[in-house]
């Protein structure tokens, strides 16, 4: 019995679509959802260029369409599959294999990037299961992204160094200039990427333990962790956030900063969440600004996170728990969320303060934190211009600014994410 037999048997309707037996040394499989993607060939060429003769890699492209799709999209996808399959037959080698799946007529309520990602990732799990390789790695990618030439080299180097890795993010940078898009799109992606980096850096600043990016084109996960946490979901958007926040709490989750994914900044409304819809929204706004969580709201949450040791010792000494010292907004939110009950539950199942914190963060996880931020902004704060809020955090980190442009502020945040400052 191999490591994923039970998982695969529980996936309703799963049948392996790739018949060829995998390379016995296969360790990395890239999964790429594809829906009417004119840039998919550039993506494949970028991955092929990064491939190495001594690291076997498979790329699974999941061309997909729903039961309500137009004939135009169906034909476009069919042509994409045909051309990609022909390219794969001609260009695949022992160490770089391209497989193309065309999943059509998907029920409307499931159709989307989450479904396609799950189909490809479950197929990857079956490939690793055939080899008994629970240390196999699934690499999530997008059909409009590219990567640096050392992409596979650095991912492999990481897993050689840290073989118990459950998952990791690869550093990313959207293009901020060029001839492919107009200047309004480059300006919009600058503000959105600044928001993404500000958000994660703010989480790090307040001491939140799950401060990681959740970008669908930029993560990888071990086959063992994927199976253990029940696999990818079928959400039509935000599937990456929901999936990764099942993996991150396992621990041994890392940032790989020595290579780069280059996602597209294009506007799109194919999914309800993510880069495409945000860029469209910015372009449609009158002032072309992007608003994000006010920095002071993170500081309210920091009060609570810093207060956790005091709460633990109050429970340890059978003392009364006082929450009045917390700011009014976070106090009210925690009361509505039955904090006292969760404190007692965490304490009764923990022998040390460290374990108490770990257990408490099973409750106050990333979903609860975002719920808290939204509550605070519904009642006590107003979202602010992303450049202003990002500058506030830099000031608190003693990083001095002058009259910097959004792009210059973003470059500072990129350095922070790379660990260079």
Secondary structure layout plus pairing:
Elements: H1 5-9, E1 28-34, H2 40-50, E2 57-66, H3 71-91, E3 96-106, H4 113-131, E4 137-140, E5 146-147, H5 151-161, E6 167-172, H6 183-206, E7 219-222, H7 223-228, H8 239-247, E8 253-262, H9 275-284, E9 291-292, H10 295-316, H11 328-336, H12 339-348, H13 353-363, H14 366-379, E10 384-385, H15 386-396, H16 406-418
Parallel strand pairs: 1-2, 1-4, 2-3, 6-8
Antiparallel strand pairs: 4-7, 5-8, 6-7, 9-10
Along the chain, the helix and strand elements come as HEHEHEHEEHEHEHHEHEHHHHHEHH
Strand order of the largest sheet: 3-2-1-4-7-6-8-5
Tally of extended strands?
Answer: 10
Shape by Cα distribution: globular
Distance between the termini: 48 Å
Please give the oligomerization state of what you see: single chain
- Major sheet: 8 strands, mixed
Kindly provide the radius of gyration, computed on alpha-carbon positions and rounded to a whole number of angstroms. 23 Å
Based on secondary structure, the structural category is alpha/beta
Structure description:
The protein has 16 helices and 10 strands. It is α/β, with parallel strands linked by helices and 421 residues long. The strands form 2 sheets. The protein has an 8-stranded mixed β-sheet, sandwiched between helices. It has a two-stranded antiparallel ribbon with strand order 9-10. β1, α2 and β2 form a beta-alpha-beta unit. α6 crosses α9. The longest helix is centred in the middle third of the chain and has 24 residues. It is globular. The model has no long low-confidence stretch (mean pLDDT 95).
């Amino acid at each position: 019995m191999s490591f994923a037999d039970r998982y695969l048997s529980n996936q309703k309707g799963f049948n392996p679509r790739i018949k060829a037996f995998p390379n016995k040394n296969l360790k990395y499989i890239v999964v790429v959802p594809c829906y009417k993607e004119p840039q998919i060939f550039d993506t494949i060429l970028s991955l092929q260029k990064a491939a190495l003769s001594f690291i076997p890699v498979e790329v699974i492209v999941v061309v997909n369409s729903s039961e309500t799709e137009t004939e135009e999209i169906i034909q476009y996808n069919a042509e994409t599959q045909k051309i990609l399959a022909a390219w794969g037959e001609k260009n695949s080698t022992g160490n770089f294999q391209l497989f193309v799946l065309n999943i059509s007529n998907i029920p409307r309520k499931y159709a989307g990037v989450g479904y396609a990602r799950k189909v490809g990732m479950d197929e990857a799990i079956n490939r690793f299961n055939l080899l008994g390789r629970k240390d196999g790695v699934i690499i999530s990618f997008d059909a409009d992204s590219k990567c640096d030439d050392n992409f596979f080299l650095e991912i492999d180097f990481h897993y050689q160094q840290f073989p118990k890795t459950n998952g990791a993010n690869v550093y990313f940078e959207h293009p901020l200039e060029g001839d492919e898009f107009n200047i309004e799109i480059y300006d919009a992606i600058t503000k959105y990427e600044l928001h993404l980096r500000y958000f994660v850096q703010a989480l790090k600043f307040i001491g939140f333990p799950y401060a990681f990016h959740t970008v669908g084109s930029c993560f990888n996960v071990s086959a063992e962790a994927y199976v253990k946490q029940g696999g990818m979901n079928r959400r039509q958007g935000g599937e990456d956030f929901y999936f990764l926040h099942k993996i991150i709490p396992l621990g041994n989750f890392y940032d790989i900063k020595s290579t780069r994914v280059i996602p597209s900044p294009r506007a799109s409304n194919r999914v309800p969440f993510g880069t495409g819809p945000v860029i469209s929204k910015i372009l449609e706004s009158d002032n072309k600004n992007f608003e994000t969580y006010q920095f002071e709201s993170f500081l309210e949450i920091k009060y609570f996170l810093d207060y956790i040791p005091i709460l633990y010792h109050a429970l340890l000494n059978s003392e009364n728990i006082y929450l009045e010292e917390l700011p009014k907004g976070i106090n009210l939110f925690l009361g509505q969320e039955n904090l006292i009950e969760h404190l007692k539950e965490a304490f009764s199942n923990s022998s040390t303060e460290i374990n108490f914190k770990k257990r408490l963060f099973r409750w106050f996880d990333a979903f609860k934190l975002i719920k808290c931020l939204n509550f605070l902004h519904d009642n006590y704060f107003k979202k602010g211009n992303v450049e202003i809020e990002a500058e506030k955090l830099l000031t608190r980190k003693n990083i001095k600014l002058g009259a910097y442009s959004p792009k210059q502020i973003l470059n500072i945040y990129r350095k922070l994410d790379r660990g260079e400052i």
